[in-house]
Amino acid sequence: MIKIMITGASGMLGAEVCLKLQNNFDVYGFSHVSSFENKSLDILDIDQVNLVVKSINPDVIINCAAFTNV
C-alpha cells in the first residue's frame, strides 16, 4: 500500500487531508505537538525530519504545516 506522510496533520487542512486519504492509503500524520492521532515532528529540525522520513520511507510527503497568528 502507498505510504503518505503528512505534516501539519492537526491543522484544518492537514486534518482534512488525513481524513480523506486514510481509507485508501497508509497515512502517517505529524504535527508540532503529539496527540492521539498524530505524532510530534519539528519540521525546522532537519535531523529529526530525516530520521522520520528514513524510518517511514513514504512514497509521498504532503506538507500542510503553516504558521498561525504571525
Task: Summarize it.
With 70 residues, this protein is α/β, with parallel strands linked by helices.
What is the secondary structure topology, with strand pairs?
Blueprint: E1 3-7, H1 12-21, E2 26-31, E3 39-40, H2 46-56, E4 60-63
Parallel strand pairs: 1-2, 1-4, 2-3
Structure overview:
- This protein is α/β, with parallel strands linked by helices.
- Helix content is 30%, strand content 24%.
- The chain contains 2 helices and 4 strands; from the N terminus they run βαββαβ.
- A 4-stranded parallel β-sheet has the order 3-2-1-4, with helices on one face.
- Strand 1, helix 1 and strand 2 form a beta-alpha-beta unit.
- The model has no long low-confidence stretch (mean pLDDT 92).
Give the terminus-to-terminus CA distance.
Answer: 38 Å
What is the gyration radius calculated from CA atoms?
A: 11 Å
The total of beta strands comes to 4
Shape: globular
- Side by side, the strands of the main sheet go 3-2-1-4
Helical residue percent band:
25-40%
Poorly predicted parts: none
Mean pLDDT: 92
- Give the assembly state of these chains: single chain
Largest sheet: 4 strands, parallel
Quick tags:
single chain, 70 residues, alpha/beta, four-stranded parallel β-sheet, 2 helices, 24% strand, globular
